[in-house]
Amino acid sequence: MKILVNGFGTIGKRVAWAITRQDDMSLYGIVKTKPDYAALVAIKNGIDIYVPSEESLRLFEEKNVPVKGLLTEALEKVDLVVDATPAKIGAKYKDLYKQYGVKAIFQGGEKANVAEVSFNSYCNYEQALGKNYVRVVSCNTTGLLRLLCTLDKAVGVEKVRALLVRRAADPKEIKKGPINAIVLDPPNPPSHHGEDVKTVVPNLDILTYAVVVPTTLMHMHYLVITLKDYASRAKIISALEDASRILLVDSSRLSLKSTAELVELARDLGRPRNDFYELLVWENSITVNGRELMLVQSVHQEAIVVPENIDAIRAMLKLVEDPLEAINKTDKSLGITGRLIN
Ligand code: NAD
After folding, report:
1. Whose CA is nearest to atom 15 of ligand 1?
2. SS3 of 329, please?
3. Domains in the chain, please, with CATH?
4. DSSP class of residue 291?
5. Is residue 11 within 6 Å of ligand 1 at its C-beta?
6. pLDDT tens sequence across 34-71
7. What is the value of pTM for the model shown?
8. Is the distance from CB of 100 to CB of 23 less than 8 angstroms?
9. Helix intervals (H) in the chain
């Protein structure tokens, strides 16, 4: 199965790399608008570059950076395109993908109606089977859904109230800084994240507030969850431990208490790009009081949606029909073991 990645930024370059780790699909190429350092790195790694327009082609020719062809030429050859262009651009490409009869995955920056299904592997893998257009929801929504669908299967979730402390920009996004404020996002809550969760789990009672803070490393979510049933703290911990894409962070044992130290840990572990594909739940924050559960979790925004993109490819192309089998296959290929330090 030949996969094209359109948009080679934060998400696109990671998804492209992840595709090269799979044994049942191959990376046909990537689509780039500009001949920058990322284009040179792609070429160094033997990845073919396509461009979306004649204008881009000229830019590449001016800098002598080799291009394999136009996006439309690639679309004639591939089975599926992962669209990782900036928010709202993906939807503009949909007609082109349709015209060439190519299945497409869109990212969380697009509206839900761009696709037939909004997707998270822990919640609704089966709904994406054989579909032509799927949206992998955003990093914050992926973090919320992984936790909530895991808890729902183990105990049942009745109600969720959450505060999201959002990173202001990705590390490379110099155009968004410097900044010095905590910004209400939006000033008139709720934030859109709760509604976005409902594009995957429609009947959940969830309300989210969000603020943006001057950091680039990770998001942090503060959650108050009403469970459908009484559950011990041990039962919650055991349910989270059983989910390979959720890691418990024992801040006391590890002597760490910040996103900065988590990134340092990823560096020390030699993780590719210092990425955490997993949702990180702060174990010592888990408090159970009757049916009320409180906890804090961290989301590495640059990486968390990567495994879901790979799973979505498998579901849409019906390469693997069983959700757990698909999740395990992707996990194995990306080194996701369910343990923070093996
Ligand atoms: P990005 O800006 O890092 O990358 C987008 C890439 O697309 C850039 O390389 C840009 O040059 C290229 N591009 C711009 N216009 C293009 C066009 N017309 N055709 C082809 N390529 C074009 O963006 P990103 O952060 O990777 O976000 C991509 C999508 O993923 C968005 O929908 C976003 O909401 C979503 N998402 C982002 C994050 C995150 O934290 N960065 C997390 C989850 C989901």
Report:
1. 85
2. helix
3. 2-137+305-334 (3.40.50.720), 139-299 (3.30.360.10)
4. T
5. yes
6. 999 999 999 999 999 999 999 999 999 999 999 999 99
7. 0.97
8. no
9. 10-20, 37-44, 54-62, 71-75, 89-99, 121-124, 139-154, 192-198, 233-242, 251-254, 259-268, 306-316, 323-334
